[in-house]
Design brief:
The structure is a homotetramer. Chain A is α+β, with helices and mostly antiparallel strands. The first copy, chain A, has a single domain, classed as Chorismate synthase AroC (Chorismate synthase, AroC fold, 4-Layer Sandwich). The first copy, chain A, is built from eight helices and 18 strands. In chain A, strand 17 and strand 18 form a beta hairpin. In chain A, helix 3 crosses helix 8. The longest helix of chain A has 27 residues. The C terminus of chain A is likely disordered. Chains in contact: A-B, A-C, A-D, B-C, B-D, C-D. At the B-C interface, helix 8 of B face helix 8 of C.
Chain lengths: ~375, ~375, ~375, ~375
């Protein structure tokens, strides 16, 4: 299968370039009779939209979505849902130099190497604008799971920008805490420092990276398809499929490699007649299957590749050159990455939830007795 | 699709439990007319086999493979290749307690929660023994790529055990350096310290985790299928599909989040008439597509869940209990994880190589001119 | 995978309903650098368009296509191609009765039974209007194969309407002969009789069925993926996925069941240094793989389910009722089925051509020596 | 995906050649906790086994199956089930001439053209022996559906041999009627004539073709995934993927093309509070989805390609030659095709049943009220 589809049963196909007719998604396999309208999708698109604040790209896009199929009188039909977001503020001229130069740490060269052609207007397909498709599809997934798995929550936040890290309790963090600041960090003090650092990076014509943390709360036990489609394997793939990501870890992650088994294992305990673990270094999955505890993971984002400082590169003809990027960009992608990380998480959740229903039938239970 | 297949064109399906008829794999889509015999596969199986040294599980398995189909007179037919490794040293009795108890940080409970049944003899499907299927399939992939992409190399090694880390030059490490010690760490000094630490952990009835590092050298530019099947996304999935893995990072990884764009970007330079990058913080991929530089990544493995120390857990009936594990296990999975990490890497490589040939036709080139 | 995608490598996803935003298709996996514009697609859409003549539905749709992604400066990028055809002449009111009644031999009841909801305006997803997606995607496939497999031809025609059958030489029939009459039958005498019969059926408020015949000329040997994705198996699926189809046969088909092996077998002969068959009762495939001879097959289409005559049916509430269909429809779908049959054939061809290249590499040859 | 897998959720991968280690299948996605043992599979394998009577091939194979994985203490685990049937009566020498000659209307030449290599011992992968994999997998599917869809029946029979046709009531035919004679034709008179004709064809060193008819009774409404994976489309593919098949028709089939819409449409009627059709020319599906009526279809099988009479052909070096086939074969494949047609039907049913459960959740109902 080509690479622009994700999911086995709730299957999305992403399409579109940053400059051209727009970007969008087709969702095939959506359960029928779920209430859905553009108004259910727009709020999530607005969260990832550029131009929300002083610390993100000023590109002005309404990112208004249209539903062209799959919905009838406000309800899903079970047929493919086509969601389209036209491009409105495209400025190809701002990218003219990209026609003849490869931007360092961008995909210009690799797309050229792979396809022998590329849309050099704003990064084309490799633009973060493509993530609109994921956010739109996830908004639908969230609606569906609201019916199928009530109580399921996905919350992501900025856990680190450059060297500024926060330490929050993933079991307690709330969406309002995340949305309180434009940097989407639930710790107000750290948030302010991050904002100042991002503004100074922009002033320097430079950029910053960081870490997004995410928690799934209320996930049923039993999600995940060993041996290859383990829940964490599909999460890792989902996250590494996002632009600018360099790493993924779940539960104890890389830190856990420095522990001993006797420290790391999560003892089982009974709580309210259910099997639970006393600790959660596993991060909510064991053997590739969710165990009913919160699923905790972190994603590393590199500093934005587009910077205003002049950079050494080569032309498409193979001559040394100096690139002075124009165009608009984020000095730090982290704040806008938060809704995108949540989106990919919802897409992993709905597909595994439906796969579990397909093979094992029993509607996966949020909590289960031990046997 | 169910979860026991990997790859789109060179597609493998893994089957088997640790106790029962054995484990094996079916490879569908293998190119025809490639010389293949069990002798081509056995050496790789021997590298992952238990009982190789004092620091791994003493379970004695010949792990001798048989090819039941897809090969005729020593050559692949292009039809499905069935490889089978019977179980010979199964000792179900050694696992009796698993029938009634959930081992902490193992998959006993989650398999029960998902399927409502489990093979409690030695972990059944969740046993690391399943990785035989991956190693066997990868041995075939390696043979095929030996013809299609000569010069392609995949080398993994133990980069860290507990707190003992090594710093090797991934561009220079060689297989003999890795195989020199049973711990598969190319730095002799660190290797000895690791071995002593592993032996002491075993003496304590405890276990250790660590990090495996891997490099792909000689990969052509152009491998990877944006936007979801990015090369690093499929690598991440492949690695997180391995037992005991908790994290994946490529190139600068989590460390790179603390850099500025101006420090992190890899400038393009011309070398011998080809486009290269002066640094390689990208880790060999940009925009999800290989750029012809070495692909560098690291995988976090948790400490082995099976330990000899008594542990608190619950029974399948929901009563608190103390588990005293018997059975055989590795105090540290890292040495045996090395060939398995290499195996998954070969499987990602061959599938993406064939996918590139399918869509873009041109046999992907190892190095390429700028246009 | 849900049911709205077709193809493994050149993968299309069809979307849209007969009433609503329109219908369209996403093509993923299209080879890059192929010249493509809406003008390359429109002629094929015009061939299937309603309102072309007195013997088809008068529904007036421009069926003008737009390409929203995947093409840059007139060439394919290798990224997903989104093609959209808006609905312009939708008249939901003409279908009011469908809200409360199930039309006999239509999909109203089965969609309701499957999804618990349906778009009752004009048949929604089950409308033949959906085939626009297939024709548009096939127009792209045809362009691609024009580069990859020059000399490849696909020609379909109406071989029978009701009891009027023609006997043409599939090796000689030409597109102009097919297009000469609105009924798309290359035999002028039969064509005139068919037209008169169709007009009388319309006058009676009744409808007619028939058979479309199709030939692939210039296909290379080696296409087809045993054992399940045999070339003829995928052709059969492609054709039975079209509305109103009731049967498929290849080569000698059902007639061949009355022959003996000694009469039916196709002896091999050498011609111009190539292996050929003296006869072609196999219909161009043996063992599920093309043998280089013309591929010949026939598809049965039932009489249009929508007729003007009053019919007995039941309401959605389960009461007996009489349906008097309004809305617009074809008294005979055969003429418009011709381009649709060709479209599905092109989609099967390109996918198998690319699959063969993926696994076996050698660009499939149009004719080959015996070894 | 390569071509040796079938099904999306209940996914089988067939492997093996007629000469070599044996043939078998891996089933991935089988629901857990279903009672299963080799004894549940063997009876179906025995029905397709060679050497059952005087009218089929004398090849003597026990076709005894082994289950190597996926079953624990007599129940399915939900993990991959590997079923293996070793080859025991292989006689490669009997096929020596196939090394240098292409058998007319066999797959020798096309496999050579596709892969550039072939197992010429007994047809290798293209042998009907491969269908063992399908029958074994279907025996498991039948067990599973026995739990999920009680009352579901699949019955096939020989409806025609050469020019001898029968006319039975598909709603009444029973398995004992089918098994009463070795030719598997439920009409005793026709059966005797068929047997005599087959014996005379064998005496002539010739072979015969015919038609297998099949009915699905008790299928729920709602199975089928428009627009491409329509129920009849997947049935057609399943049947055309069988060796020696040349055609498929459902309901009125090719005969229905000679009717008018007013004759062909199936009026809806209420019966016992359920929506039914007064006639069933649709053959149990409308718009690609089952409507709850019996599903009726017919498959054309060509006369066996292997005949004892001398035949003209060419050698692999391109020289004219005369083939005198030795080896063992069926003068008429129809009797043994019956269980294979049933097997493919079960495989289509279980996959669509599980797909419906995945997307629409509600356990598909055997009969349903109108709304």
């Amino acid at each position: 299968m080509p690479g622009n589809s994700f999911g086995q049963i709730f299957r999305i196909t992403s399409w579109g370039e940053s400059h051209g007719g727009g970007v969008g998604v087709v969702i095939d396999g959506c359960p029928p009779r779920i209430a859905l309208s553009p108004q259910d999708i727009q709020p999530d698109l607005d969260r990832r939209r550029p131009g929300q604040s002083s610390i993100v790209t000023p590109r002005k896009e309404a990112d208004a979505c249209q539903i062209l199929s799959g919905v009838f009188r406000g309800k899903t039909l079970g047929t493919p849902i086509l969601i389209w977001v036209p491009n409105t503020d495209a400025r190809p001229d701002a990218y003219r130099e990209m026609e003849t130069m490869y931007r360092p740490s961008h995909a210009d060269f690799t797309y050229q190497a792979k396809y022998g052609i590329r849309n050099w207007e704003g990064g084309g397909r490799s633009s973060a604008r493509e993530t609109i498709a994921r956010v739109a599809a996830a908004a639908v997934a969230k609606r569906v799971l609201g019916h199928l798995a009530p109580g399921l929550e996905v919350i992501a936040w900025v856990g680190q920008v450059h060297r500024i890290a926060v330490d929050v309790d993933p079991l307690k963090v709330t969406p309002p805490q995340v949305e309180r600041t434009p940097v989407r960090c639930p710790d107000p003090k750290a948030a302010n420092r991050m904002i100042r650092l991002i503004e100074s990076a922009r002033a320097d014509g430079d950029s910053l990276g960081g870490i997004v943390e995410c928690v799934i709360r209320g996930a049923p036990a039993g999600l995940g398809e060993p041996v290859f489609d383990r829940f964490e394997a599909d999460l890792a793939k989902a996250m590494l499929s996002l632009p600018a990501t360099k790493g993924f870890e779940i539960g104890s992650g890389f830190e856990g490699t420095r522990m001993r088994g006797s420290e790391h294992n999560d003892p089982f305990v009974m709580r309210a007649g259910k099997v639970h673990t006393a600790s959660n270094r596993s991060g909510g999955t064991q053997g590739g299957i969710t165990n009913g505890e919160p699923v905790l993971f972190r994603i590393a984002f590199k500093p934005t590749a587009t910077i205003a400082k002049p950079q050494k590169t080569v032309t498409t003809r193979g001559h040394a050159a100096i690139l002075r990027a124009r165009g608009r960009h984020d000095p730090c992608v982290l704040p806008r990455a938060v809704p995108i990380v949540e989106a990919m998480t919802w897409l992993v959740l709905i597909d595994h939830w439906l796969r579990q229903r397909a093979q094992c039938g029993s509607r996966p239970r949020r909590t289960r007795s031990s046997r």
